[in-house]
Amino acid sequence: MPELPEVETVRDGLDRLVAGAVVRDAEVFRDYSVRRHDGGPAGFADQLRGRRLVGAVRRGKYLWLPLADPRQGASAALLAHLGMSGQLLVRDPAVAGEWAHPHLRVRLHVDEAPSGAHYVDFVDQRTFGHLAVTDLEPTADGASGGYGSPLPALPAPVAHIARDLLDPALDRDAVVATVRRRRTGIKRALLDQTVVSGIGNIYADEALWRARVHFARATDTMTRPVVHRVLDAATEVMTEALGQGGTSFDALYVNVNGESGYFSRSLAVYGRAGEPCPRCATPVRRDEFMNRSSFTCPRCQPRPRQGRW
DNA sequence: CACACGTCCTGGTAGC
DNA sequence: TGCTACCAGGACGTGT
Q1: Residue, of A257 and A157, whose pLDDT is higher
Q2: Residues near chain C strand, CB within 7 A
Q3: Measuring CA to CA, how many Å separate A94 from each of A67, A88, A119, A268?
């Protein structure tokens, strides 16, 4: 499942493989995949035709390709969110053949890609992901919009998303203050993309395990150093994941499948109910929380007496 | 069939 | 009381 490291891997791949390409046409095979685009599927294709993709930018789990178009003054971008299962595949049919993925939802036909690729395919089994063309608007603080961006601008749907832990413009002390002001549990705060972005269920559990904090710990009882420790652990685990995921795709295939090597080998607790904690060998415990799973070591991360689930 | 999960949306509550 | 900000949880969607 794509969280920040996976999305960053895709951003990096798109930046190298398709930045500079011109969109000749766009085909929408599943209307739901462009549900957040204002003009519907036809309008989506209309707004992309003839426009140049000038780079790839990311904030949290959102990814966008700013569009250059001398015909229009307003700046815009092709916005993507991968949801739970989205992939962006950069393909060259001359090499890969015309085989289409069974869950192909949207296909961009592009010319002049630096990689020589001709398709950018949006593949999404569970259809929680989406694509849209949106306007770019100035950022509130005038700083660059996200990771990889030279522009102080954001797609409108990203305006409420906080900066992420890899963003050089992130104010970590401010995030700590926001977390401690909240009256909720630490995992809810970590998953709230308006507090700090990019963290999903998997990396939240891994970060909390590393920091030895239980997911239900009340944020307003946490000291500044402990909140910092949790954020540092999240940064660490996502940076390590990025280091592994970023090396694993070949030139014409940008893969964002959450099942990549990192997941099976390096996770300490996520998905490992009953297996020994790597630190103390106590069996990992699974709890239901927020209609999803949470994995903890009951010894390293004891449940607080007055926690907030 | 329940389950996997991120985001949007709604209805509710806490605090001023 | 009324307002605002915040918070919890259901709905969405597909395939195993």
Answers
A1: A157
A2: A 32, 84, 102-103, 125-128, 181-185, 188, 192, 290-291, 308-309
A3: 26, 18, 11, 42
In contact, A71 and A165? CB cutoff 8 Å: no
DSSP A266: H
Does the annotation mark A187 as catalytic? no
Whether A47 is in a domain gets the answer yes
What is the extent of the structural domain holding A179? 172-296
Choose the catalytic residue: A52, A59, A61, A272. A61
Kindly report the CATH number assigned to the domain that includes residue A208: 1.10.8.50
Residue A22 DSSP SS3: strand
Q: Which structure tokens are listed for A148?
A: 């990889």
How long is the CA A71 to C1' C11 vector, in angstroms? 40
Is the pLDDT assigned to residue A201 strictly greater than 50?
Answer: yes
A194, two tokens: 């308006």
Contact residues for A152 (Cβ-Cβ < 8 A; gap 6+):
A138, A139, A142, A143, A144, A145
A146 and A178, same domain (yes or no): no
Q: Residue A306 falls within a domain, yes or no?
A: no
- The model's pTM: 0.92
Q: How far apart are CA A305 and CA A276, in angstroms?
A: 24
Least confident of A1-15, A188-202, A223-237: A1-15
How far is it, in rounded angstroms, from Cα A258 to Cα A250?
Answer: 16
The Å distance, CA of A221 to C1' of C1, is: 32
pLDDT of residue A261: 40
List bases in chain C with any atom under 7 Å of a protein Cβ. Answer: 6-15
Alpha carbons A259 and A185: distance in angstroms, whole number? 28
CA–C1' distance A112–C11 (Å)? 42
Contact (CB, 8 A) for A228 and A186: no
A97: helix, coil or strand? coil
